[in-house]
Design a protein that fits this description.
mainly alpha; Serine Threonine Protein Phosphatase 5, Tetratricopeptide repeat; 0% strand
Length: 141
């Protein structure tokens, strides 16, 4: 990674983690313009799009991230939630099932037991400590 790209990546990630999504988005988009092979940046852009209510764009980013890294469980969950919000229930179920199977193969702890809760990583640019919340999130639609 060249120095300029690394600086952009670090800046975009920091802004995202600090919840400064309006500032993070153009920086992360520039990272993807330079090198579209960052699954984690695609995921961040998907989260930003989802928070803005642009579910189609969010799904596109999550789909790209999964193309780059099919075992990226966090993205699978984000995509399943986004498909569900779009009313694409079969797609949501398929992605969710695949994520659960991959997680089981990888020996990851189960986060799949309560299928109705939205306590995953999506819509949470906060640090990982906030991820385990069990309150359902409102539907932005």
């Amino acid at each position: 990674m060249n120095a300029n790209l690394q600086e952009l990546y670090d800046l975009g990630t920091k802004l995202f983690e600090d919840g400064k999504l309006n500032e993070a988005e153009p920086v992360l988009a520039e990272v993807i313009r330079i090198n579209p092979r960052y699954a984690d940046v695609q995921n961040k852009l998907g989260i930003i799009a989802n928070l803005r209510g642009d579910l189609r764009k969010a799904a596109e980013h999550f789909e790209k991230a999964l193309e780059l890294n099919p075992r990226y469980t966090e993205v699978s969950l984000n995509l399943a939630i986004t498909y569900n919000d779009l009313g694409e229930f079969k797609k949501a179920q398929d992605v969710f099932t695949m994520a659960a199977q991959i997680a089981a193969l990888d020996g990851l702890p189960s986060v799949f037991g309560d299928g109705c809760r939205r306590s995953f990583i999506l819509i949470s640019p906060q640090p990982a400590a906030a991820v385990g919340q069990s309150e359902p999130l409102p539907n932005p639609g």
